[in-house]
Amino acid sequence: MQKITPFLWFDNEAGEAAKRYTALFGGSKIKETALLHDTPSGTVEVVSVELYGQEFTLMSAGPLFKFNPSVSFLVACRTREEVDELWEGLSDGGTALMELGEYPFSERYGWIQDRYGLSWQIMFMGEHPITQRIIPTLMFVGAVCGKAEEAINYYASVFENSQVGEVFRYGKDQAPDREGTIIHAAFTLEGQEFAAMDSAHQHNFSFNEAISFVVNCNTQEEIDYYWDKLSFDPNAEQCGWLKDRYSVSWQIVPAMLQDMLRDTDPGKAARVTEACLQMKKFDLAALQRAYEG
Does the structure show a pLDDT above 90 at 259? Predict the structure, then answer.
């Protein structure tokens, strides 16, 4: 199981989006679909997909949260033609944030919000080696602008098999961005690639729960460790969800929870769902007791 999984909160389009994304990203697939009943959002659909070999979870749980460009997904492409094909597919009903074209950092690049509001950066990588096809990218704006470097160093201290890679900085003549802050930085957590950037321009968005990152844990000790390291806002703690000091949302989740919630015995799934709703940090033993009845 992938240690860190992007989790995407849709209004009611998770199933539709899963079909579109798996058709667009070649060799991708829908792994599993489940319905969770009696949640605060009613019955919700949860879809697990694999896009270019990477796991994502999509959930339809109502209009409470909306995607915005504070978290985007950089798609590393081997050819210009692949860039054009993906751009065409994602443009259907979408809005360009940076038009497809040639830029100093790439011969073929564009940044787009698709029809669901999810942001994608499509980039021809040229001679640069590609080790991961889709890279979650965090943009630090507003109150957290200028904190990208601090954040990625902190994340690298929390997760194993982590490191900070190439860092590109703003110069003194790139106002409103402050000299020395991050244009783009690459980093890995648990061997998975991420990127971060600062932007001091005026933005009407910030990190929210529409995109979170699930940390799959095998023991209560792991759950306790990540919860203690990452949780910063007690008011945001609910059902395994938390917000860190930069307002990025995480879910600290037992790896076995998916199997419990998708059990063919509706009684087991209902008991586990009810138990989850009573918790902030997950108690693995209590969930097991609920599952067993």
Answer: no
Q: Tell me the pTM.
A: 0.96
Structure tokens at 91: 């443009």
Sorted by where each starts, the structural domains of the chain and their CATH numbers stand as 4-66+208-292 (3.10.180.10)
pLDDT band at 151, cuts 50/70/90? very high
Question: For every residue of the chain, which 3-state class applies, written as one string?
Answer: CCCEEEEEEECCCHHHHHHHHHHHCCCCEEEEEEEEEEECCEEEEEEEEEECCEEEEEEECCCCCCCCCCEEEEEEECCHHHHHHHHHHHHCCCEEEEEEEEECCEEEEEEEECCCCCEEEEEECCCCCCCCCEEEEEEECHHHCCCHHHHHHHHHHHCCCCEEEEEEECCCCCCCCCCCCEEEEEEEECCEEEEEEECCCCCCCCCCCCEEEEEEECCHHHHHHHHHHHCCCHHHCECCEEECCCCCEEEEEECCHHHHHCCCCHHHHHHHHHHHHCCCCCCHHHHHHHHHC
Tokens representing 224 are 């306790």
Residue pointed to by tokens 């982590």:
162
Residue 125 contacts residue 186 (beta carbons within 8 Å): no
Q: How far apart are CA 98 and CA 80, in angstroms?
A: 16
**Span 131-142, pLDDT tens digits:** 999 999 999 999
Q: 16-54 in b/e burial notation, b at 16+ Cβ within 10 A?
A: ebbebbbebbeebeeeeeeebeebebeebbbbbbbbeeb
| CA count, 13 A, side-chain hemisphere, 186 | 11
pLDDT digits (tens, 9 = 90+) for 162-197: 999 999 999 999 999 999 999 999 999 999 999 999
